[in-house]
Amino acid sequence: MFPSKPLIKWLIISLVILGLSSITPGIRVVSFSAALVAAFVLGLINLIIRPIILLFTLPINILTLGLFTFVINASLILLTARLVSGFTVKNFWWALILSLIISIVNSSMSHKKL
């Protein structure tokens, strides 16, 4: 039986987090299991908290033509780093870079049939 789409996306995002931690000095993951937990927690945060924040920040998001969403995504990554031991992000700019790369990967996954 082939794994479901959410499971594949979870594994791919985990690999992205792990891969970026090996090539960037501002993102650290101690193990693959920490990357799996970080991707899972980030998914839960994006599922529960992100829509509420987007609703409250709608006026500024409209004013910035949606660019404020990147700030929100980076902030949620920093929150994930605080919640998950073994996953650290040095500062906001590294979180923004990770956010951009995860957004690109998610976008490419949504355009392909997994």
TrEMBL record:
The chain crosses the membrane at residues 7-23, 29-49, 56-79, 91-109. Keywords: Membrane, Transmembrane, Transmembrane helix. It holds the Pfam family Phage_holin_4_2. This is Phage holin family protein.
